[in-house]
């Protein structure tokens, strides 16, 4: 059996094998389906259309492909990378079981790209009587292929044109067929031919360039009436036909054919250039992220140093090196562990300086030692067993939003650590976006600043942030959750320490003498609105939260935090608490209650409002890259809030992650890519 796969390696169901070990030709059955795709400079040409057609072929045989688009794409890139071959045709061969095509081979095949002389002179073709069973499906038929090969060799022809039982010419054995007469193009009806990807492109391009196309049966008897003939295909582009049997055409000098050929080549080149850019854009995003999460950077609230842990400094140094590598020359880390870098403007126009900020530490709530990220390909909506030994399962029953990501690739933990998407996804996304701008200098942009901060998770991320040195007009933290999140409102926050002094007397002789501070504490709390507590509030509803209490008869202390998005309501809550203390002091006739109250942070909205365009632009950027903005108030504080009050207005944008700070943390890869696109889009929108 002949070996079809060339070069050293092929990919079978996602794994790389030596072509001397595995021979896909051995598994070929008549029901197999396949696609041939041309690789140009490492880019699979018109890949989306080929995959779509592969699925259609499967469908025509009442089967499904068992792999996602992303998987097929990753197989192709594995093949290209392992062979280091960048300009050749590949074949995707899918072999079916009962219901599915579940054996997927991807390999390079012998390719022939016609030399210039073929285009200049046109090619010789012959007619061949046969008919495909299912003309629209690309099904392997070895017998026919062999018979045609023989015929071509014998007749010294480049292609055989198939003729059906009605005497109509339908298509080439490996190409689609077009005739030209009086500036019009004629081609056999779609129902009777294999719908080539190049054919489809040609029809699109004709439409866009006002070239009329007529689909009709073309009888062998009438071919001499046409001015020109050409065939199209993956390897041949638009190839003029000089002869069909012994009928001659001036195809290589036909104006319509020449024009169409030029238009097609231009489209092909544009496609490759566009894809190369996109590939570059996301190229290292996931590799970066996987590398970052494996570096442990847990912060520590017990520590008195800046940053709170040395591991964050190690990570900061790695990030500085990486920023330098992508071309940000001034990248540096200061003694407190803050990484800053600049992408200089590439225009003189007056464009604001925009900052992007993410934090390097991960939450002390869960260990980040030996993070072992798992990539779940083509998530099917079922339970994900993160750790079978410990029976740790990430289930849509507990996290129904998982269902939104069916068909996507997810990155999860192995159930023993947190993931650290909060906020290493933010870092990977920012660096990838900046790298894209560095590599695409034709995109005009103003100065872009980048900062990676330590100790966000222990509330110190803004402490030593040098806003002046950073020098941005405004910034975005990339530190939110699910795709689309956009936040610019957070709580106003204060804490209150309520100290109650009692008077202890022997309980047997306590009448009118004892003051039990515990009972006063209970009364105190009961006088606050019972429904304004975390367990009864959501959205914009504020609360009093009693988060600690300790005491005895002699002295009791209550610790509250007070939260509200609305500044007036926030002040009102604080007043109410003070009033309760006053009332009880009056009631007892003695000042037994002392309240120590202090504001902690404020709603950044007040600082964002005067520059609300920064939210509007972020919203617009999301919509333009196909993300629905989810704007909601943060029920907490952020470093961005503190930075806003330090003079750097700073809304928060999604990273794409879910279930932060715990073992069920996960992030869909597509959401990460969207975050990169949003960052780039914001920069572009401000440069308009
Ligand atoms: Zn975070």
From TrEMBL:
Positions that bind Zn(2+) 1: 359, 422, 479
Compartment list: Cytoplasm
Transmembrane portions of the chain: none
Chief location category: cytoplasm
CDD domains cross-referenced by the UniProt entry: M20_peptT (cd03892), PLPDE_IV (cd00449)
A GO cellular component entry from the record: cytosol
Catalytic activity field: Release of the N-terminal residue from a tripeptide
Required cofactor names: pyridoxal 5'-phosphate; Zn(2+)
UniProt-annotated binding residues for Zn(2+) 2: 422, 457, 661
Record: active site: 361, 456 (proton acceptor)
Keyword Chaperone among record annotations: no
GO biological process, one term: carboxylic acid biosynthetic process
Domain Peptidase M20 dimerisation: 488-583
Swiss-Prot/TrEMBL keywords: Aminopeptidase, Cytoplasm, Hydrolase, Metal-binding, Metalloprotease, Protease, Pyridoxal phosphate, Zinc
InterPro entries the UniProt entry points to: Aminotrans_IV, Aminotrans_IV_CS, Aminotransferase-like, ArgE/DapE_CS, Bact_exopeptidase_dim_dom, BCAT-like_C, BCAT-like_N, Peptidase_M20
Pfam family membership, one: Aminotran_4
Keyword Cytoplasm: yes
Superkingdom of the source species: Bacteria
Cofactor remark from the record: Binds 2 Zn(2+) ions per subunit.
Its EC number(s): 3.4.11.4
Single GO term (MF): tripeptide aminopeptidase activity
Record-stated family: Belongs to the class-IV pyridoxal-phosphate-dependent aminotransferase family. Belongs to the peptidase M20B family.
Role played: Cleaves the N-terminal amino acid of tripeptides.
Protein name listed in UniProt: Peptidase T
Gene: pepT
């Amino acid at each position: 059996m002949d070996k079809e796969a060339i070069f050293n390696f092929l990919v079978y169901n996602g794994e790389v094998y030596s072509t001397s070990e595995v021979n896909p030709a051995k598994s070929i059955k008549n029901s197999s389906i396949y696609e041939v795709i041309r690789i140009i400079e490492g880019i699979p040409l018109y890949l989306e259309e080929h995959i779509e057609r592969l699925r259609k072929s499967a469908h025509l045989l009442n089967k499904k492909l068992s792999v996602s688009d992303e998987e097929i794409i990753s197989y192709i890139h594995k093949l290209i990378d392992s062979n280091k071959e960048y300009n050749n045709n590949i074949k995707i061969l899918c072999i079916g079981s009962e219901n599915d095509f579940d054996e997927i081979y991807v390999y390079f095949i012998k390719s022939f790209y016609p030399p210039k002389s073929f285009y200049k002179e046109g090619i010789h073709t012959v007619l061949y009587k046969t008919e495909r069973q299912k003309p629209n499906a690309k099904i392997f038929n070895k017998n026919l292929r062999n018979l045609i090969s023989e015929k071509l060799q014998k007749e010294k022809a480049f292609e055989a044109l198939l003729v059906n039982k009605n005497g109509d010419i339908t298509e080439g054995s490996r190409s689609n067929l077009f005739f030209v007469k009086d500036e019009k193009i004629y081609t056999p009806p779609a129902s009777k031919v294999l719908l080539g990807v190049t054919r489809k492109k040609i029809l699109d391009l004709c439409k866009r360039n006002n070239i009329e196309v007529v689909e009709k049966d073309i009888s062998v008897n009438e071919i001499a009436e046409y001015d020109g003939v050409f065939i199209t295909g993956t390897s041949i582009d638009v190839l003029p036909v000089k002869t069909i049997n012994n009928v001659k055409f001036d195809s290589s000098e036909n104006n319509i054919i020449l024009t169409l050929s030029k238009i097609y080549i231009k489209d092909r080149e544009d496609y490759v250039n566009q894809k190369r850019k996109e590939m570059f854009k996301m190229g290292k995003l996931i590799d970066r992220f996987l590398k970052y999460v494996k570096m442990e950077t847990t912060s520590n609230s017990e520590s008195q140093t800046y940053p709170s842990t040395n591991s964050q400094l190690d990570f900061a140094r790695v990030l500085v090196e990486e920023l330098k590598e992508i071309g940000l020359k001034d990248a540096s880390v200061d003694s407190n562990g803050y990484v800053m870098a600049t992408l200089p403007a590439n225009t003189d126009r007056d464009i604001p300086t925009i900052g992007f900020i993410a934090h390097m530490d991960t939450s002390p709530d869960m260990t980040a030692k030996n993070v072992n990220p798992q990539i779940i390909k083509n998530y099917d909506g079922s339970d994900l067993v993160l750790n079978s030994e410990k029976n740790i399962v990430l289930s849509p029953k507990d996290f129904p939003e998982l269902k939104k990501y069916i068909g996507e690739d997810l990155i999860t933990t192995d159930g023993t650590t947190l993931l650290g998407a909060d906020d290493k996804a933010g870092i990977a996304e920012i660096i990838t976006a900046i790298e894209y701008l560095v590599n695409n200098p034709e995109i005009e942009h103003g100065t872009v600043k980048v900062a990676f901060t330590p100790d966000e998770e222990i509330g110190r991320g803004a402490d030593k942030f040098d806003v002046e040195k950073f020098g941005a007009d405004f910034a975005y933290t990339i530190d939110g959750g699910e795709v689309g999140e956009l936040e610019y409102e957070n709580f106003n926050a204060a804490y209150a320490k309520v100290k109650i002094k009692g008077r202890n007397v022997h309980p047997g002789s306590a009448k009118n003498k004892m003051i039990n501070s515990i009972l006063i504490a209970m009364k105190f709390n009961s006088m606050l609105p019972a429904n304004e507590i975390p367990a009864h509030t959501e959205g914009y509803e504020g609360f009093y939260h009693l988060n600690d209490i300790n005491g005895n008869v002699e002295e009791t202390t209550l610790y509250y935090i007070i939260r509200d998005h609305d500044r007036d309501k926030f002040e009102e809550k604080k007043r109410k608490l003070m009033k309760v203390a006053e009332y009880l002091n009056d009631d007892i006739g003695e000042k037994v209650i002392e309240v120590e109250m202090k504001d902690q942070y404020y709603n950044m909205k007040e600082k964002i409002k005067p520059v609300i365009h920064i939210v509007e632009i972020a919203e617009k950027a999301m919509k333009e890259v196909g993300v629905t903005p989810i704007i909601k108030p943060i029920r907490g504080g952020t470093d961005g809030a503190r930075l806003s009050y330090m003079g750097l207005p700073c809304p928060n944008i999604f990273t794409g992650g879910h279930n932060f700070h715990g073992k069920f943390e996960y992030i869909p890869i597509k959401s990460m890519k969207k975050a990169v696109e949003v960052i780039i889009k914001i920069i572009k929108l401000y440069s308009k």
